[in-house]
Amino acid sequence: MSYIDEIAAAIARRIPPALVPEGDTGSLFRIYAVLALAKGPRVVLEDVHDAWAAWMSAQNPEHQSLKPLAELAPDVQQSDLPYLDAIRSVAQEHKLGR
């Protein structure tokens, strides 16, 4: 297992299974791992949404939430919070970020 996959798995373990999207989410969590490495605990909600949008663009290019975070309803924006918390938690635990 690569260091990216180890970080991705650590992030994924912090997400309740009911909140994980259907399908192959390996690449999604790898993108989140890159966020943890690049930004560490400084990652923000917009970063998480942009990472999800990059992943979702390949999964379902017509998804209704494929727009900038600020254009989404507040409740939809909040759906990224568990991922933000997980990324920050892993980044802090592993002392990641530049």
Topology record:
Blueprint: H1 3-13, H2 26-39, H3 45-59, H4 74-78, H5 81-93
Q: In angstroms, what separates the terminal alpha carbons?
A: 23 Å
H/E order of the elements?
Answer: HHHHH
Indicate how many domains the architecture comprises: 1
Radius of gyration: 13 Å
Percent of residues in helices comes to 55-70%
β-sheet strand percentage: under 5%
What spatial form do the alpha-carbon principal axes imply? Answer: globular
Main sheet properties: none
Alpha-beta content class: mainly alpha
Counted by DSSP, the helix tally is 5
Quaternary assembly? single chain
- Spans where pLDDT lies below 50 across 5 or more residues: none
Secondary structure: number of strands: 0
Arithmetic mean pLDDT:
95
Commentary on this structure:
With 98 residues, the protein is mainly alpha-helical. The chain has one domain. It has 5 helices and no strands. It is globular.
Structure keywords:
98 residues; mainly alpha; 5 helices; globular
In short:
This protein has 98 residues and is an all-alpha fold. It has helices at 3-13, 26-39, 45-59, 74-78, 81-93. It contains five helices and no strands.
